[in-house]
Amino acid sequence: MSLHIKQRLALEMFWPTFDPFLFCAFHDDRFPKANGKLGPDASLAGRHIGQDFQGKDGWRMYHGSNVPGFPAHPHRGFETVTIVNEGFVDHADSIGAAGRYGEGDTQWMTAGKGVQHSEMFPLLDTEQPNPMELFQIWLNLPAKNKMVEPHFAMLWNEKTPLAKVTDDAGKLATIKVVAGEYNAPNGETYEPVAPPPNSWAADANNDVAIWIIDLDEEAHWTLPAASKGLTRTLYFFEGESAIVDGTDVSIKEALVLDSDADISMENTGKKCRFLLLQGRPIGEPVQQHGPFVMNTRQELQQAFHDYQRTQFGGWPWERNDQTHGDEKRRFARHSANGAIETP
């Protein structure tokens, strides 16, 4: 029996999270080939267009009508961290930033005092299926930072550290380090791109870690101990079976772990994949209603009032479901100076 697994939870589309994390959605859509207009080349009959989460035929339109995804909507008081393993996301926002990212990229957006953005999933291949797999993670902001200026950052796949660790039998574990450094057994340190400046993750004392862990068949790896008193959750999202801290576990489980213990992991099936979310709790009251996360009901009411009054800067784009063309190119346009960044 495990000494360090505190809780085991079943996984569906929306995963259980713990302070400082607010939310984690796992989007896994096997979209068909594209229709040449960035949408699916398939009938939309029988879908609840504008609210399609049913997973019919293995994919969803979400709030999209022509292109899958999430048209313009507001946020205040927290951050979104969107990690795209497969497929592409087209971003546009009310501060004038835009981008297309995917194929391993991460977008980190501090909503702060308020921003509107859209997140559309353009289907670019008109000959082959368009698989999409991504995590969207909501990371809370402490009260002192809830009303900071919005911030948009791109963490390109090419700049995201990838640690490759072999066990005694030569089997491989690969750790993608999105946030929180990883110290490998050989003494090498993998330091990720810095998070936005006002993020809870920007202070190393908060021990925020976001890692994707791949274990090849029969691979062994040890998740190293961190500080005491953190929330630490391991999500088993792909594969078949594994042994974690001496306990047999299956795909679609979340394991809530002691943060100050080494955790042994062994893959007992085909290649398996885990997401790790870890961090020091903020420990403040949380009041949430839809896209706004504040500390008090009064602050929530003010958020709704401010959005109705200002639209958080308005929407400078032609469409609420703004997309960026049919070329497979990744880019980011930053609002401050309009500079175009590419991987």
Automatic annotation (TrEMBL):
In which domain of life is the source organism classified? Bacteria
Q: Where is this region: Disordered?
A: 315-343
Please give the InterPro entries that the UniProt record associates with this protein. Answer: Pirin (IPR012093), Pirin_C_dom (IPR008778), Pirin_N_dom (IPR003829), RmlC-like_jellyroll (IPR014710), RmlC_Cupin_sf (IPR011051)
Domain Pirin N-terminal stretches: 65-139
Q: Which residues form the Pirin C-terminal domain?
A: 213-313
Bias (Basic and acidic residues): 318-329
Pfam families for the chain: Pirin, Pirin_C
Q: Which family does it belong to?
A: Belongs to the pirin family.
Listed PANTHER family? PIRIN (PTHR13903:SF8), PIRIN-RELATED (PTHR13903)
Name under which the protein is recorded: Pirin family protein
Which organism encodes this protein?
Answer: Marinomonas piezotolerans
